[in-house]
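Problem 12. The chain below contains 231 residues. Write out its predicted structure in token notation.
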Amino acid sequence: MPVAIITGASKGLGRALAEALAARGWDLVLDARTPQVLAGTAAALAARGTRVTALPGDVTDPAHRSELVTAAGKLGGVDLLVNNASALGVEPLTRLDGLPLDGFRRALEVNVVAALGLVQEALPLLRASEAGTVIAVSSDAAAEAYETWGGYGASKAALDHLAAVLGEEEPRLRVWAVDPGDMATDLYAAAVPEDREPRPRPGGVVPAFLRLLDERPASGRYGAPALLEGL
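Solution.
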């Protein structure tokens, strides 16, 4: 069975994607910072018959990243790496003139540095896979200027560029930066707690990710709304 590593997988988009892959027979290595929530997610997925290794930890910890890749190797390799774990840097979001620099550093460390570190750790197994794939979960804030989203958006823009360069440097792999669009997630609620407008559930955008895996277009940046058209 193919093997995927998904970070930030205990809830939201990470869990929804893990559920979809489990339904297709994938084996999974899941990461999140909250052990109890991650254990519940892993138990629900394992009940479907898929092999699941759940490893709570912080993706900024090199030892934890190594643990994730080692676990995937024991399951058979790494066919898909999804860098989904994200940090806002400050909650709720604030304008750049008041953005704490320590918070900005945290966003960069989680969203960019840790993501690259995990790619570096997993590259030998990704290269050995017949369909090695990296997905960087992006944001429209990486491409559009929204007030208060500067720090987070800058980190996601950097992630997009890393994904683009990785796609050039590793032509045998597929490397996709994917903007899922607005979603009802804990991260969005923490970013803009005063926004009470209804948002789509994360599960609604998962078919966009599955379409990429099925059709395997060229490495690049993709938006979920466009991928969902015609499905």
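Discussion. The radius of gyration is 17 Å. Students who got a different answer should revisit the alignment rule from Section 12.3.
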